[in-house]
Amino acid sequence: xxxxxxxxxxxxxxxxxxxxxxxxxxxxxxxxxxxxxxxxxxxxxxxxxxxxxxxxxxxxxxxxxxxxxxxxxxxxxxxxxxxxxxxxxxxxxxxxxxxxxxxxxxxxxxxxxxxxxxxxxxxxxxxxxxxxxxxxxxxxxxxxxxxxxxx
Amino acid sequence: xxxxxxxxxxxxxxxxxxxxxxxxxxxxxxxxxxxxxxxxxxxxxxxxxxxxxxxxxxxxxxxxxxxxxxxxxxxxxxxxxxxxxxxxxxxxxxxxxxxxxxxxxxxxxxxxxxxxxxxxxxxxxxxxxxxxxxxxxxxxxxxxxxxxxxxxxxxxxxxxxxxxxxxxxxxxxxxxxxxxxxxxxxxxxxxxxxxxxxxxxxxxxxxxxxxxxxxxxxxxxxxxxxxxxxxxxxxxxxxxxxxxxxxxxxxxxxxxxxxxxxxxxxxxxxxxxxxxxxxxxxxxxxxxxxxxxxxxxxxxxxxxxxxxxxxxxxxxxxxxxxxxxxxxxxxxxxxxxxxxxxxxxxxxxxxxxxxxxxxxxxxxxxxxxxxxxxxxxxxxxxxxxxxxxxxxxxxxxxxxxxxxxxxxxxxxxxxxxxxxxxxxxxxxxxxxxxxxxxxxxxxxxxxxxxxxxxxxxxxxxxxxxxxxxxxxxxxxxxxxxxxxxxxxxxxxxxxxxxxxxxxxxxxxxxxxxxxxxxxxxxxxxxxxxxxxxxxxxxxxxxxxxxxxxxxxxxxxxxxxxxxxxxxxxxxxxxxxxxxxxxxxxxxxxxxxxxxxxxxxxxxxxxxxxxxxxxxxxxxxxxxxxxxxxxxxxxxxxxxxxxxxxxxxxxxxxxxxxxxxxxxxxxxxxxxxxxxxxxxxxxxxxxxxxxxxxxxxxxxxxxxxxxxxxxxxxx
Lengths: 151, 714
Fold this sequence. Notes:
CATH superfamily of the largest domain in chain B: Histidine kinase-like ATPase, C-terminal domain
Shape of chain B: elongated
Number of domains of chain B: 6
Low-confidence stretches of chain A: 1-9
Number of domains of chain A: 1
CATH class of chain A: Alpha Beta
Helix content of chain A: 40-55%
Radius of gyration of chain A: 15 Å
Oligomer: heterodimer
Number of strands of chain A: 5
Radius of gyration of chain B: 67 Å
């Protein structure tokens, strides 16, 4: 218990990176986190390009702090989610970073491709807000509390 | 036999001679003195002459006596000589012949036996001394006959004909032979009464006779049963003999023919002139050959025969009889006629077949060339007869080598048939595409006799095929373009579905989410009605989410790839119903799933199908106290179909058409919730498997869905 408390503090320090282009979904996700009593800092990337910048930093600058988990939407302008995922897995620094695909799509090919590219989990956003809150709550509990990250 | 005639002259009785002498002497004594007294008067002279006359008488009598004695002596000498000659002959006959001769005296002892006893029977003279001695050597089976013979010995044999018996006698060396015993009266010289027993070896004779008999029987059989009719006709051409074969041929009995019918009676009137010629030829040449006749059987039917006959004449060249043989040619002639007709028919067909016809001999030279060949290639038969294919310009130069290679096997007598497709030239140099159907005829030794070729001109087809090929190429191009278009359209559709999934759901989530936020955070600023509206907004957006999801899954069924395997729908149904029961344990639902519901299809899609069908059954029986669901098989229009039956609320068959249309529902959301996508999904799954589905129901009386999945679903 003591150990787990210690771990909790450790992961709770870290922020969550939410990659989502739809501002409604951003707000709803943040509301869901609030309702689930997850108070970690949530940083939002509005598209894939921004997400990669936030993860890998700009050249010459000190690399940014790693998030506890990346919540990645798939359908985004510029660089889409799967491309972001591929980049994350191809970069030494972010190779073992937990990435959860959080998307509206339940297309089989998206799911398969997502796992093939190294997604740690694939969650479909339910339309029902109650269910969505439920999903986010469990997601937070799992990735922020139970899961042991590599870095 | 002795012949007394020869000695008749010497047979004057001595008493007669004496009587003649006495008469002559008396006459002489009585008249000679008177004649002398008349002639001579002188007594002295008379006395003298009487003396002379006495001397003369003595002289004449002496001479006569001498002559008589000489004659008798001569006769006796001749008789003796004759007798000795004959005796020698008889003795040699007796002794040298192979006939045993035994003289039997009254005691049945043998008073004489000849050497043949030893030579023929092998017994010494003293071994066969009386009739009793035979009892030991005569075959037991023949003993009765021997005794019959013996009995005659006791009888008076003088008026008896010779008695003959055939018996087997054992030779001295132990072998049995057939003998003929003849007991005969012996009337020998001086009429001495005795009996002779003659024994002759007739073994060979008997054997020969038996053989002869057998041979005669064989000949008779041959004569009667020979496959050829035989007959003999008398000088007036009336039948005097006929064999069975010919009787069968004519249908008459022997009695109806022999002596009653002439050959002319049996033939048709048209053949009478032939018969006249036939008779003339027989008389002149002595034979006739291969004459064809139609004979009329007793039953009136006609038979065609071939007749050969030979005539036999007496010393004066008068016809005695004829011998003839008759062969029934009816069947053969019929067969020949048929063969001939068949030949002509075949030849007609060959000459008139729309295919070209060529026959080649064993050295591959043309022997037949049909009119159609001439029409096809332009050369007349005279132009090509006797030519080899390389000797005139018929095979296309680029095909020559291949054609000759293909024919090698057939010309060597190995291939019996082949089909060669090649180009040919016509007389005027045109190129024709032809198929040559070649077949070889071989003799018994497997040597090639001839080759027959049927030629099919496929130039038109080949040109048409080339045309088709060209069209196909352009068609393929078109198909490619279309496919590309279609693929693009499909991609667009997929993109659309994808964006429906993604883009439509996102705003819905917004509506639902923010409505709930509104309800939670600003509830105090809304009255009850406002809150109800908000609730409805949430519910509507959630339902729309479900609709979108169903729509997507429906389209996924259409797009997903079919993986065929054996699926037991019974097992699937039981699993599904079990899960329903676990979800709603409070419901009373009986279900019955029959065995043997195995079909071929995509396990995933079939599970979705059963899930939907059973879901409906479960849903529409929810108002029943005792629900019943059955999955089974039934024979519908001759094929094995499956069904899902329930005792639920059913539906009105009036709306049957709308059952399988997506989003069409027959019940309200309040009564039975749903999106109206279930049966549409079922129909798509069945459609993708090449099957069919139909429903039957009455309102409030349950529903049954029959579906058929072919074994080899598409």
